[in-house]
# Entry
Amino acid sequence: MLIPALSDRISSEQKDYFMHHLALSGSIVVLTHQNPDGDAVGSSLAMRHFLHAIGKTDVTNIVPTSFPDFLAWMPGTEDIVLYESQPDWAAQKVREAELVICTDLAEAKRVAGLEDALASRTKPVLIIDHHLSAVCTEQPWQIAFPDCASASELVFRVVCEYVRHSSDAEALFARILTPEFATCIYTGMMTDTGNFSYNSCHPEMYTIIATLLTTGINKDAIYDKVFNAYSADRMRLIGYCLYHKMRLYPEYHTAVITLDRKEMYRFNAKSGDMEGIVNMPLQIKDVYYSVFLREDKIPPHQREQAGAAKVKVKMSFRSQGDRPVNSIARECFHGGGHMNAAGGEFFGAVGKAAEAFEQVMPKFFRRAETITNAQTTNSEVTNTK
Ligand SMILES: [Mn+2]
# Structure
Protein backbone atom coordinates (compact mmCIF):
# COMPACT_ATOMS: atom_id res chain seq x y z
CA MET A 1 0.00 0.00 0.00
CA LEU A 2 1.44 3.33 -1.11
CA ILE A 3 1.83 5.88 1.67
CA PRO A 4 0.45 9.23 0.42
CA ALA A 5 2.96 12.02 -0.12
CA LEU A 6 1.99 14.74 2.36
CA SER A 7 3.88 17.80 3.51
CA ASP A 8 5.34 17.16 6.93
CA ARG A 9 5.46 19.81 9.65
CA ILE A 10 5.79 17.47 12.61
CA SER A 11 9.23 18.10 14.09
CA SER A 12 11.75 15.31 14.50
CA GLU A 13 11.62 15.84 18.30
CA GLN A 14 7.86 15.29 18.24
CA LYS A 15 8.23 12.16 16.12
CA ASP A 16 10.98 10.81 18.37
CA TYR A 17 8.86 11.47 21.46
CA PHE A 18 5.87 9.68 19.95
CA MET A 19 7.95 6.65 18.81
CA HIS A 20 9.83 6.45 22.06
CA HIS A 21 6.80 6.50 24.35
CA LEU A 22 4.77 4.20 22.13
CA ALA A 23 7.59 1.68 22.24
CA LEU A 24 7.94 1.98 26.02
CA SER A 25 4.28 1.91 26.99
CA GLY A 26 2.17 -1.16 27.64
CA SER A 27 -1.01 0.37 29.00
CA ILE A 28 -2.35 3.28 26.95
CA VAL A 29 -5.41 5.48 27.52
CA VAL A 30 -6.84 7.42 24.59
CA LEU A 31 -8.84 10.40 25.79
CA THR A 32 -10.89 13.04 23.98
CA HIS A 33 -12.98 16.06 24.90
CA GLN A 34 -16.32 16.17 26.70
CA ASN A 35 -19.51 16.31 24.60
CA PRO A 36 -17.56 14.45 21.93
CA ASP A 37 -18.35 15.25 18.31
CA GLY A 38 -17.53 13.32 15.14
CA ASP A 39 -13.91 14.44 15.16
CA ALA A 40 -13.42 13.60 18.84
CA VAL A 41 -14.85 10.10 18.46
CA GLY A 42 -13.24 9.64 15.02
CA SER A 43 -9.73 10.73 16.00
CA SER A 44 -9.71 8.77 19.27
CA LEU A 45 -11.09 5.56 17.74
CA ALA A 46 -8.73 5.85 14.75
CA MET A 47 -5.90 6.05 17.29
CA ARG A 48 -7.27 2.89 18.95
CA HIS A 49 -7.35 0.99 15.63
CA PHE A 50 -3.81 2.15 14.85
CA LEU A 51 -2.51 1.05 18.26
CA HIS A 52 -4.12 -2.38 17.85
CA ALA A 53 -2.58 -2.71 14.38
CA ILE A 54 0.91 -2.12 15.76
CA GLY A 55 0.41 -4.74 18.45
CA LYS A 56 -0.73 -2.70 21.47
CA THR A 57 -3.36 -4.73 23.26
CA ASP A 58 -3.89 -2.75 26.47
CA VAL A 59 -5.68 0.27 25.02
CA THR A 60 -8.58 2.00 26.79
CA ASN A 61 -10.65 4.66 25.07
CA ILE A 62 -12.34 7.02 27.52
CA VAL A 63 -14.86 9.79 26.82
CA PRO A 64 -15.65 12.24 29.65
CA THR A 65 -19.35 12.52 28.70
CA SER A 66 -21.57 10.53 26.34
CA PHE A 67 -21.47 10.90 22.56
CA PRO A 68 -24.57 11.40 20.38
CA ASP A 69 -26.53 8.48 18.90
CA PHE A 70 -25.66 9.46 15.34
CA LEU A 71 -22.05 8.44 16.04
CA ALA A 72 -22.86 5.16 17.78
CA TRP A 73 -22.42 3.10 14.59
CA MET A 74 -18.72 3.98 14.32
CA PRO A 75 -16.39 0.99 14.51
CA GLY A 76 -15.02 0.60 18.03
CA THR A 77 -17.66 2.62 19.93
CA GLU A 78 -18.71 -0.55 21.80
CA ASP A 79 -15.29 -0.46 23.51
CA ILE A 80 -15.46 3.16 24.63
CA VAL A 81 -15.60 3.67 28.39
CA LEU A 82 -17.90 6.48 29.49
CA TYR A 83 -16.36 8.30 32.46
CA GLU A 84 -19.81 9.20 33.80
CA SER A 85 -20.77 5.51 34.11
CA GLN A 86 -17.54 4.36 35.76
CA PRO A 87 -15.95 7.50 37.24
CA ASP A 88 -13.57 5.88 39.73
CA TRP A 89 -12.34 3.20 37.38
CA ALA A 90 -11.85 5.68 34.52
CA ALA A 91 -10.02 8.19 36.74
CA GLN A 92 -7.70 5.46 37.99
CA LYS A 93 -6.97 4.41 34.41
CA VAL A 94 -6.13 8.01 33.47
CA ARG A 95 -3.84 8.34 36.50
CA GLU A 96 -2.02 5.05 36.07
CA ALA A 97 -1.74 4.32 32.33
CA GLU A 98 1.84 4.36 31.13
CA LEU A 99 0.82 6.72 28.33
CA VAL A 100 -2.22 8.95 27.81
CA ILE A 101 -2.89 10.14 24.27
CA CYS A 102 -5.31 13.07 24.00
CA THR A 103 -6.84 13.60 20.57
CA ASP A 104 -8.94 16.65 19.65
CA LEU A 105 -8.17 17.82 23.17
CA ALA A 106 -5.54 20.12 24.62
CA GLU A 107 -7.12 21.55 27.76
CA ALA A 108 -7.52 19.67 31.03
CA LYS A 109 -10.73 21.61 31.72
CA ARG A 110 -12.47 19.94 28.76
CA VAL A 111 -12.48 16.48 30.34
CA ALA A 112 -15.28 17.06 32.90
CA GLY A 113 -14.52 15.21 36.15
CA LEU A 114 -11.27 13.71 34.83
CA GLU A 115 -9.44 17.02 35.18
CA ASP A 116 -7.69 16.18 38.45
CA ALA A 117 -6.70 12.69 37.34
CA LEU A 118 -5.16 14.09 34.17
CA ALA A 119 -3.39 16.93 35.97
CA SER A 120 -1.94 14.61 38.63
CA ARG A 121 -0.15 12.37 36.11
CA THR A 122 3.59 12.06 36.36
CA LYS A 123 3.86 9.72 33.37
CA PRO A 124 3.73 11.12 29.82
CA VAL A 125 0.71 12.70 28.11
CA LEU A 126 0.80 13.12 24.35
CA ILE A 127 -1.47 15.66 22.68
CA ILE A 128 -2.64 15.52 19.07
CA ASP A 129 -4.94 18.46 18.54
CA HIS A 130 -5.99 21.30 16.27
CA HIS A 131 -7.72 23.72 18.67
CA LEU A 132 -6.41 27.25 19.06
CA SER A 133 -5.82 26.61 22.73
CA ALA A 134 -3.24 24.06 21.66
CA VAL A 135 -1.13 26.61 19.80
CA CYS A 136 2.03 24.77 18.97
CA THR A 137 4.50 25.33 21.75
CA GLU A 138 7.01 23.16 19.93
CA GLN A 139 6.99 20.87 22.93
CA PRO A 140 7.78 17.35 21.81
CA TRP A 141 4.67 16.02 23.55
CA GLN A 142 2.29 18.43 21.85
CA ILE A 143 1.54 17.83 18.19
CA ALA A 144 -0.77 20.78 17.67
CA PHE A 145 -1.65 22.54 14.44
CA PRO A 146 -4.58 24.96 14.77
CA ASP A 147 -4.75 25.37 11.00
CA CYS A 148 -5.41 21.67 10.50
CA ALA A 149 -9.15 21.24 9.84
CA SER A 150 -9.60 18.19 12.09
CA ALA A 151 -7.77 16.19 14.72
CA SER A 152 -8.59 13.10 12.67
CA GLU A 153 -6.57 14.46 9.74
CA LEU A 154 -3.71 15.12 12.16
CA VAL A 155 -3.88 11.56 13.53
CA PHE A 156 -3.65 10.28 9.94
CA ARG A 157 -0.59 12.45 9.33
CA VAL A 158 1.09 11.27 12.55
CA VAL A 159 0.39 7.66 11.59
CA CYS A 160 1.96 8.20 8.15
CA GLU A 161 5.09 9.60 9.79
CA TYR A 162 5.21 6.66 12.20
CA VAL A 163 4.95 4.23 9.31
CA ARG A 164 7.73 5.91 7.33
CA HIS A 165 10.17 5.00 10.09
CA SER A 166 9.53 1.29 9.66
CA SER A 167 11.85 -0.87 7.61
CA ASP A 168 8.86 -2.31 5.77
CA ALA A 169 6.74 0.81 5.65
CA GLU A 170 4.31 -0.21 2.93
CA ALA A 171 3.41 -3.54 4.53
CA LEU A 172 2.89 -1.83 7.89
CA PHE A 173 0.73 0.85 6.28
CA ALA A 174 -1.40 -1.82 4.63
CA ARG A 175 -1.93 -3.43 8.05
CA ILE A 176 -2.98 -0.15 9.65
CA LEU A 177 -5.17 1.12 6.81
CA THR A 178 -8.25 -0.99 7.54
CA PRO A 179 -11.81 0.06 6.65
CA GLU A 180 -12.39 0.64 10.39
CA PHE A 181 -9.44 3.03 10.70
CA ALA A 182 -10.39 4.78 7.44
CA THR A 183 -14.02 5.16 8.51
CA CYS A 184 -13.03 6.86 11.76
CA ILE A 185 -10.59 9.27 10.08
CA TYR A 186 -13.07 10.10 7.32
CA THR A 187 -15.92 10.74 9.76
CA GLY A 188 -13.81 13.20 11.77
CA MET A 189 -12.62 15.04 8.65
CA MET A 190 -16.18 15.20 7.33
CA THR A 191 -17.87 16.44 10.51
CA ASP A 192 -15.29 19.11 11.41
CA THR A 193 -15.62 20.67 7.95
CA GLY A 194 -19.43 20.47 7.68
CA ASN A 195 -19.09 17.81 4.97
CA PHE A 196 -16.23 19.78 3.36
CA SER A 197 -18.06 23.10 3.20
CA TYR A 198 -15.63 25.12 5.37
CA ASN A 199 -11.92 24.83 6.32
CA SER A 200 -11.75 22.45 3.41
CA CYS A 201 -9.64 24.01 0.67
CA HIS A 202 -6.34 22.31 1.40
CA PRO A 203 -5.54 20.01 -1.55
CA GLU A 204 -3.85 17.44 0.72
CA MET A 205 -7.17 16.74 2.45
CA TYR A 206 -8.33 15.14 -0.77
CA THR A 207 -5.11 13.18 -1.12
CA ILE A 208 -5.86 11.70 2.30
CA ILE A 209 -9.48 10.99 1.36
CA ALA A 210 -8.37 9.28 -1.86
CA THR A 211 -6.17 6.98 0.24
CA LEU A 212 -8.97 6.26 2.72
CA LEU A 213 -11.34 5.33 -0.12
CA THR A 214 -8.96 2.61 -1.32
CA THR A 215 -10.08 0.55 1.69
CA GLY A 216 -13.54 0.31 0.14
CA ILE A 217 -15.34 2.56 2.62
CA ASN A 218 -18.50 4.20 1.32
CA LYS A 219 -18.29 7.92 2.03
CA ASP A 220 -21.87 8.53 0.90
CA ALA A 221 -23.12 5.95 3.40
CA ILE A 222 -21.06 7.63 6.14
CA TYR A 223 -22.65 10.99 5.28
CA ASP A 224 -26.09 9.38 5.41
CA LYS A 225 -25.46 7.81 8.83
CA VAL A 226 -24.22 11.05 10.37
CA PHE A 227 -26.27 13.77 8.72
CA ASN A 228 -29.54 12.04 7.84
CA ALA A 229 -30.06 10.68 11.32
CA TYR A 230 -32.33 13.23 12.94
CA SER A 231 -35.08 12.02 15.22
CA ALA A 232 -38.52 13.52 14.62
CA ASP A 233 -38.10 15.24 18.01
CA ARG A 234 -34.89 16.91 16.86
CA MET A 235 -36.50 18.12 13.64
CA ARG A 236 -39.39 19.61 15.64
CA LEU A 237 -36.98 21.17 18.14
CA ILE A 238 -35.14 22.87 15.26
CA GLY A 239 -38.46 24.14 13.87
CA TYR A 240 -39.40 25.49 17.29
CA CYS A 241 -36.01 27.22 17.73
CA LEU A 242 -36.19 28.92 14.34
CA TYR A 243 -39.87 29.88 14.45
CA HIS A 244 -40.40 30.82 18.07
CA LYS A 245 -37.01 31.36 19.66
CA MET A 246 -34.78 33.12 17.15
CA ARG A 247 -34.33 36.81 17.85
CA LEU A 248 -32.69 39.02 15.25
CA TYR A 249 -30.59 42.12 15.91
CA PRO A 250 -30.31 43.51 12.36
CA GLU A 251 -28.12 46.43 13.41
CA TYR A 252 -25.51 43.89 14.57
CA HIS A 253 -26.18 41.27 11.87
CA THR A 254 -26.83 38.92 14.75
CA ALA A 255 -29.28 36.12 15.54
CA VAL A 256 -29.74 34.73 19.06
CA ILE A 257 -31.57 31.52 19.97
CA THR A 258 -32.29 30.61 23.60
CA LEU A 259 -33.62 27.37 25.09
CA ASP A 260 -34.49 26.63 28.71
CA ARG A 261 -34.68 23.23 30.41
CA LYS A 262 -38.48 23.05 30.14
CA GLU A 263 -38.37 23.53 26.38
CA MET A 264 -35.71 20.87 25.95
CA TYR A 265 -37.81 18.51 28.03
CA ARG A 266 -40.87 19.26 25.88
CA PHE A 267 -38.98 18.17 22.76
CA ASN A 268 -37.30 15.25 24.49
CA ALA A 269 -33.94 16.78 23.58
CA LYS A 270 -30.95 14.48 24.01
CA SER A 271 -27.23 15.09 23.95
CA GLY A 272 -26.39 15.96 20.37
CA ASP A 273 -29.88 17.15 19.45
CA MET A 274 -28.78 20.75 19.85
CA GLU A 275 -25.69 20.17 17.70
CA GLY A 276 -25.56 22.41 14.64
CA ILE A 277 -28.56 24.59 15.49
CA VAL A 278 -26.19 27.50 16.10
CA ASN A 279 -25.01 27.37 12.48
CA MET A 280 -28.48 27.64 10.95
CA PRO A 281 -29.15 31.40 11.31
CA LEU A 282 -25.95 32.07 9.32
CA GLN A 283 -27.87 30.86 6.28
CA ILE A 284 -29.93 34.07 6.50
CA LYS A 285 -28.66 36.78 4.19
CA ASP A 286 -26.99 39.56 6.22
CA VAL A 287 -26.74 37.52 9.41
CA TYR A 288 -23.04 37.18 10.18
CA TYR A 289 -23.12 36.33 13.88
CA SER A 290 -25.12 33.57 15.49
CA VAL A 291 -25.45 32.84 19.21
CA PHE A 292 -27.13 29.81 20.76
CA LEU A 293 -27.80 29.74 24.50
CA ARG A 294 -29.13 26.63 26.23
CA GLU A 295 -29.57 25.72 29.85
CA ASP A 296 -27.80 22.75 31.31
CA LYS A 297 -27.40 21.09 34.68
CA ILE A 298 -24.48 22.14 36.83
CA PRO A 299 -22.04 19.22 36.92
CA PRO A 300 -20.66 18.22 40.35
CA HIS A 301 -17.18 19.61 39.65
CA GLN A 302 -18.63 23.10 38.98
CA ARG A 303 -20.96 23.37 41.99
CA GLU A 304 -18.59 25.60 43.90
CA GLN A 305 -18.01 27.90 40.95
CA ALA A 306 -21.79 28.11 40.30
CA GLY A 307 -22.50 29.59 43.74
CA ALA A 308 -26.24 30.21 44.17
CA ALA A 309 -27.07 29.47 40.50
CA LYS A 310 -29.35 26.47 39.94
CA VAL A 311 -28.52 26.00 36.26
CA LYS A 312 -25.80 26.97 33.87
CA VAL A 313 -26.03 28.11 30.27
CA LYS A 314 -23.87 26.74 27.50
CA MET A 315 -23.14 29.44 24.99
CA SER A 316 -22.13 28.82 21.38
CA PHE A 317 -20.93 31.58 19.10
CA ARG A 318 -20.49 31.43 15.34
CA SER A 319 -19.56 34.07 12.79
CA GLN A 320 -18.56 34.53 9.20
CA GLY A 321 -15.47 36.16 7.73
CA ASP A 322 -13.17 38.35 9.79
CA ARG A 323 -15.57 38.82 12.72
CA PRO A 324 -14.05 37.23 15.79
CA VAL A 325 -16.33 35.58 18.35
CA ASN A 326 -13.61 34.04 20.51
CA SER A 327 -12.89 37.38 22.24
CA ILE A 328 -16.44 37.79 23.64
CA ALA A 329 -16.39 34.13 24.76
CA ARG A 330 -13.00 34.55 26.42
CA GLU A 331 -13.46 37.96 28.02
CA CYS A 332 -17.08 37.69 29.17
CA PHE A 333 -18.11 34.05 29.41
CA HIS A 334 -15.21 31.89 30.72
CA GLY A 335 -14.62 30.37 27.29
CA GLY A 336 -12.75 30.77 24.05
CA GLY A 337 -12.23 29.10 20.72
CA HIS A 338 -11.55 29.95 17.12
CA MET A 339 -12.24 33.23 15.36
CA ASN A 340 -15.48 31.91 13.79
CA ALA A 341 -16.50 29.28 16.35
CA ALA A 342 -16.29 29.71 20.10
CA GLY A 343 -18.02 28.63 23.27
CA GLY A 344 -18.56 29.93 26.77
CA GLU A 345 -20.71 29.44 29.84
CA PHE A 346 -22.83 31.46 32.23
CA PHE A 347 -24.06 30.45 35.67
CA GLY A 348 -27.75 31.30 35.97
CA ALA A 349 -30.94 31.05 33.91
CA VAL A 350 -30.93 31.44 30.14
CA GLY A 351 -32.86 34.73 30.26
CA LYS A 352 -30.12 36.23 32.41
CA ALA A 353 -27.47 34.89 30.05
CA ALA A 354 -29.26 36.51 27.10
CA GLU A 355 -29.35 39.83 28.98
CA ALA A 356 -25.66 39.58 29.82
CA PHE A 357 -24.91 38.86 26.18
CA GLU A 358 -27.04 41.76 24.93
CA GLN A 359 -25.13 44.12 27.18
CA VAL A 360 -21.71 43.19 25.85
CA MET A 361 -22.70 42.57 22.21
CA PRO A 362 -22.11 46.20 21.11
CA LYS A 363 -18.56 46.06 22.43
CA PHE A 364 -17.61 42.91 20.52
CA PHE A 365 -19.88 42.62 17.47
CA ARG A 366 -19.48 44.96 14.52
CA ARG A 367 -22.42 47.28 13.94
CA ALA A 368 -24.01 47.54 10.51
CA GLU A 369 -22.62 50.45 8.51
CA THR A 370 -25.90 51.00 6.73
CA ILE A 371 -29.24 50.04 8.15
CA THR A 372 -32.20 49.18 5.98
CA ASN A 373 -34.86 51.69 4.99
CA ALA A 374 -37.46 50.00 7.12
CA GLN A 375 -35.36 50.42 10.24
CA THR A 376 -34.55 54.05 9.42
CA THR A 377 -38.26 54.79 9.09
CA ASN A 378 -39.00 53.07 12.37
CA SER A 379 -36.39 54.97 14.29
CA GLU A 380 -37.50 58.26 12.72
CA VAL A 381 -41.05 57.61 13.84
CA THR A 382 -39.85 56.78 17.33
CA ASN A 383 -37.68 59.88 17.46
CA THR A 384 -40.46 62.30 16.56
CA LYS A 385 -42.77 61.02 19.24
MN1 LIG B 1 -12.01 18.69 16.19
User: Anything to note?
Assistant: Confidence is low (pLDDT under 50) at residues 371-385. Residues 39, 104, 130, 150-151, 192 surround manganese (II) ion (CB under 6 Å). The radius of gyration is 22 Å. The chain has two domains: 12-226, 232-364.
